[in-house]
Structure formats: C-alpha cells, structure tokens
Amino acid sequence: MRDKMHTPVLLDEVLVALEPKSGGVFLDGTVGHGGHAAAILKRTAPTGRLLAFDRDARNLEVAKKRLAFAGNRAVFVKESYANAFGHAERHGFFGCDGILLDLGFSSAHVDDPSRGFSFLKEGPFDMRYDQSQELTAAVIVNGWTENELATIFRLYGEEPEAARFAKTIVQVRRQHRFLTTMDLASHIELVAPRRGKIHPATRVFQALRIVVNEELSELERALPMMVGLLKPGGRIAIIAFHSLEDRIVKQFFRTQKNHTLKILNKHVIAPNKDEQMRNPRSRSAKLRVAEKV
What we know:
The chain is α/β, with parallel strands linked by helices. It has helices spanning 11-18, 35-43, 57-66, 84-91, 107-111, 137-143, 146-157, 162-173, 181-191, 202-213, 215-229, 243-256, 273-278; strands at 25-28, 49-54, 74-78, 96-102, 230-240, 261-263, 286-292. Strand 2, helix 3 and strand 3 (74-78) form a beta-alpha-beta unit.
C-alpha cells in the first residue's frame, strides 16, 4: 500500500534489498506518490535513472512534483507495470539494477471518498485505479450473476459468507441499484453484524477491488517480464499486502529458484513495531526479495 506523502512502507528494508548506487538503473512499477522512488533517485545521483509506472493519473502528477529534483533522470508512464516491457525498451531500461513493486491501493485511494475504495466513507461505487477504464465496482455488483459474485468473493476475498452475501446483493438490487459504498456495506452488515475490529464488508471490498483492477492476473503476467528486464545480479523487491498476492510472488520465486533467481530472504520481511505504530496500514506488508543469477 503506497502512503500519501508520508514515509513509504518498509523504506529502509527496500533500500537495503535493492542497494541503489550512483548511476544505477531502476524501475518502480507502482510509483504512487513517489516515496520509494525519491529515495532511490537520491541514492543513484547524479546519473542514476528510474522508470516509473502508475495506472492512476493523479498519482503520477503527485509523483512528478515529488521527483522534480531528478529532472530527466525520472521517466513517467501512465500504464500498468504488466505492460512495462515495450516502455522499458523505448526508454532504454533493459538491464535494470533493481525493480520495485509495491502492490495494492494507496492511502490516497482510501482517503478520497470519490474513488469508492472505502466502506467507511460515502462515495460512488468506483474502485478503478485507471479512471478511463469502463469496468467499475458498480457494474459488477449491479450486473453480475449471484454465482459470479459468490465466486469472486470466495476466491479473491477468501470470504466464508460469500454465497450469503451474493444472495443478499441480488435480492436488494431488485429493488434498487447499489450506487454508493456505504449502501453495500450497510446491507452486508445486516446479514453479518460486525464483531470485533474487522468490518464484515472488508473481504467483499477487497475482492471487488482486485477484480475491477485485474490485480492478480496482472501480477502473474508481469513477474516473468520483470525478471527479464533485470541484468544478472539485479534485484527485484515486491511488497504484498494480502495473502493472495504474497502467495503468487512466493510461488513464482520458488519456481525460478536455482534457474533464474536466487531468493535473498528465507522468510518474509515485515515492518518492525515502530513502523507499525507510526503507520498502522503497514501492518500487513510483506517484502520478498530475489536476485537474478
């Protein structure tokens, strides 16, 4: 999760993992507001370069301002990192020293009700990183079948009440369309009243966000390409925030072990207690690092 102009998650650990040095060439597939990228560009000055991707035009504008100090050493592309190969070729970023993926949505997305990512604030049912695409959360909730909804809640939200929630959604939408985040969240809470800290809509919203933005399929498609963009000895660092993402990264690293990658951390790297206290949203972060052989 990319922080809104605050210290990014696991910054020190990422810098240790990627070892940016003067003149280094790096790729940040999820630049967000540019926190990690700024630190990397400062370490690689005066000639190091960074290719920054983000699907969200607003994020890129913020990142451009934050990284203005680097001048033309930073190149920005409004695109998914899963489509990085052609852009890397065009801008001369083959043979990268390091690649970073900080997966998932940013604090800016959560904190802006108009983006429709949070069930804690009233907002339109959107959830798109790239607001030029057609598929939104509202299209899914109001148009997909009960079986399709139950399937995505179960697969991408790991929601034990997937079938019950899907049935409720279909029943309610016969009376009115779901247009806002809190409308859906309130109906889910009627079916499964809140117990403890976790809101019953949490996993449903996760599933919808993943599907709207094709997060898991993009990650699976991108990983081999990212390794291809690294030079021998180059490193890839990936921060995941839920088990589905982390499982994909872990399995990919294992399949490439002793073939194209050397795994550098036996166990995932997690934020220390101080960071978790400063930024509670960092608590679920898991960093995995590998080096191209």
